[in-house]
Amino acid sequence: MNNFNLSEKSKNYYEENDIYEIFSIAEDYPNKIYKCLLPKIKNKVVLDLGCGTGKFMKKFYKEAIKYYGLDLSNEQLKIAKNKVKSNNVQFICCSAENIPLPENSVDVIISTWVLGTILEVDRRNKVLEEMKRVLKVDGSIYLVENDIGGEFEEIRNRYPDIKKTKDYNDWIEEHNFICENKFKTYFKFENDNQAKEIFSNIWGEDIGKKVTSKIIEQNVIIYKYKNEIID
Ligand SMILES: C[S@@+](CC[C@H](N)C(=O)[O-])C[C@H]1O[C@@H](n2cnc3c(N)ncnc32)[C@H](O)[C@@H]1O
User: Fold this and answer.
1) Helices 192-203 and 17-26: crossing angle, nearest 10°?
2) From 158's CA, which of 1, 87, 88, 168 has a CA 20 to 30 Å away?
3) CATH number belonging to the domain at 11-230, selected among 3.40.50.150, 1.10.10.10, 3.30.470.20, 3.40.47.10
């Protein structure tokens, strides 16, 4: 397990999920992402790819016809399952490199901060291929990612050295995704100490020391992929 980050094998997806859950609840406290994505998923067959502990599933499943929550980590899914019990929800524990759904079967795929956790570009490409395979011809994919700048990037040493975030976001744009929306949102933890502890746990003490407030500004970008066939 990789101790100090949120990449695919992070301990916070397998052993210390309670820490991830606090982080996830604090993220986008004003619900800006929710408000932006809600109209897209209404009355649709939705795949929440890398759904984690169900942050968005909990908010969206009632609006969808069918809601698939897919994640590689059974421990993450266990928390999501405790939040959502409904006939229109199906949990899938597997790698997104092989999605066990038929081709042309999903209206909307949402994936919030997932592809960047897969560090090998070949595997990321495979996930994109799979997303496109299961997507209906008139379907859409929305990726929620961190944009350059803002306190969250600065604290994690991704600003002013923007290379990591820029390289990743460039990769997304090279794959036919366009910016649907970008905005500032923020994390809100219960208190300054909680914010510090969560960041220390995930990214290590040096990063934790940089946290001075329970509110941490975050720049978010929402990318949209629309099936080329009908464009
Ligand atoms: C940063 S978390 C985001 C979770 C959730 N989307 C959210 O917004 O809170 C990344 C999630 O992607 C999952 N994940 C990472 N690699 C994956 C893969 N290859 N296939 C499926 N899920 C994966 C992790 O287990 C983790 O739950």
Assistant:
1) 130
2) 1
3) 3.40.50.150
